[in-house]
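Form 7-S
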Amino acid sequence: MTSSAQHRLSLVIPMYNEQDNVLPMLERVHEVLGHYPMPWEVLLVNDGSSDGTLAMMREGQAKYGEHVRVVELRRNFGQTAAMQAGIDLARGDVIATLDGDLQNDPIDIPRMVNRLLDEDLDLVAGWRKNRQDAVIMRKIPSRIANKLIRRITGVQLHDYGCSLKVFRAEVVKNVRLYGEMHRFIPAWLATYTAPNRIAEEVVQHHPRTRGVSKYGISRTFRVIIDLLVVYFFMRFSARPGHFFGMVGLGLGGLGGLIMAYMVLLKLLGEDIGTRPLFFTGILLILVGVQMLTTGVVAEMLSRVYFESQERKSYIVRNKDAVPATDDEAWCEPPPA
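Output:
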């Protein structure tokens, strides 16, 4: 069942070295959406796979039809760039993203679309409440990361790492993803829409049965670094001078207090020329001035950033990823 609101649905599935999962994934998608009452398409994004993933995608396209669109990136740009490529090329009013390893189940998509449209939301994020992954290598780091992300961003979701999400296209297309920022999409989206238009839905999660996981414990450290970037952009992207200014004023003020204390000691007849505190005060004042001037430069750069033409984080090789007209290559609903 899905909402009666008119819409077109695009499924974005990035894949990297998932040759054994391509055809089973397409089979499952068509099993679930075979009687979907609205037009839909699926975009398979090959993120520079070195195995037979692309060949399997082409085979699946030949088997199921032109509504299965294959997007071939020139090299391995990473999951975030592959997801951004699919979102950019998607033509639906509603966009769903999910991993290509069959751990996310497409059966949850119609229910999530229904909630997105009926409750007038901009994002419904999946929550893998019963996650089927290794406890030490995946679950525990994920719980720590999710708690930290919630605290820093203020967006209260249980599972930021779940790739199964359903978006309103007009909103998600305003978000640009770089690096490994796909897990922070809800946080980025919160800069474009109200938090009460973001919800989560419990979804199924299956153990991986084919292929090899591309993630390890090292991802936790990358999450922390990315989180610092998200925190900065959420609060200071349009006013970086405030961030550097606060740091500069704080350091400069502390240096000023130290130097005032040194002047007082000098007036009392004490020698301050060899005191470490004297040099510390000078250093803090210099660093404070440097941070203030950095803030001015950052303000200038932010204006260039917002006014310049946006650059994409990927390069698409095949031009047939985009149909000639917007009305082509859709899987139409069956006749009543």
